[in-house]
Amino acid sequence: MRKKTARPLGKSGRGAIYLVLVVLVIVVMVARFLRRDYYAVFLCALTLLLFNIPRFFGRRFNIELPNVLESIILLFIFAAEILGEIGSFYTYVPWWDSMLHTINGFLMAAIGFALIDVLNRSPMFHFSLSPIFVAFVAFCFSMTVGVVWEFFEFAMDSLTSTDMQKDYLVQSLSSVALNPAGINDPVRLGGITSTVVNYTEGGQAAQLVIDGGYLDIGVYDTMKDLIVNCIGAVAFSVIGYLYIIGRNHGIFARKFIPQLKAAPTEEKAPPKRR
After folding, report:
1. Residue 4: which residues within 8 A CB-CB, separation 6 or more?
2. pTM score of the predicted model
């Protein structure tokens, strides 16, 4: 008897994932609409739009996205918008945000790698980049996208009072702002158990006690996001480098590397008889 081997994810599998996710998003959209949660309805509509970006990207740049890569992108969008934002997985699951930023670093490196690698192999461009340089550009592309996203989170939190940069409770801090002499010598506070916040609400003085430490405002979250983004970018850059130096043997890498579609060949008309 022949042993059955696992088949790679084909177009039918990718199509099934796409269909299931679309149905789930529509169900959530209808449920949130009945509850008059119009922000969630907007997120669902945005998710349906984002689902079509991989196909648009492939058609626009004449690139064939591997089924595995496209499926990961679809699941990533669903996990970020529906589970993360609407389902509050960002708060219920401590590692959810870190996981998504790691995957984002991986995916953005894949896109950056594809753009450079396709140009590198295209007959329209007369240059040839070394494998290590292509991998480095893919890494830089991913990190740039990660930094721009952190800019966006900071802008949204500053202008619309959201909390995209999740805050952390810390038990120690070191700051020169606490130095009574005003010199550049940081004062360290350790073993912080609580923080008292005095503020005004409706013109009345109020007080809030934060138990567990000092509430860090976004710094830890931003740095953590960039670090895990870097890990994802490095992981794909290594895969891409190995793929280039052994292009015909990178079976695993080909599941994540977009390919340039072959140009359709024109059939020559048969010669006319005289």
Report:
1. none
2. 0.80
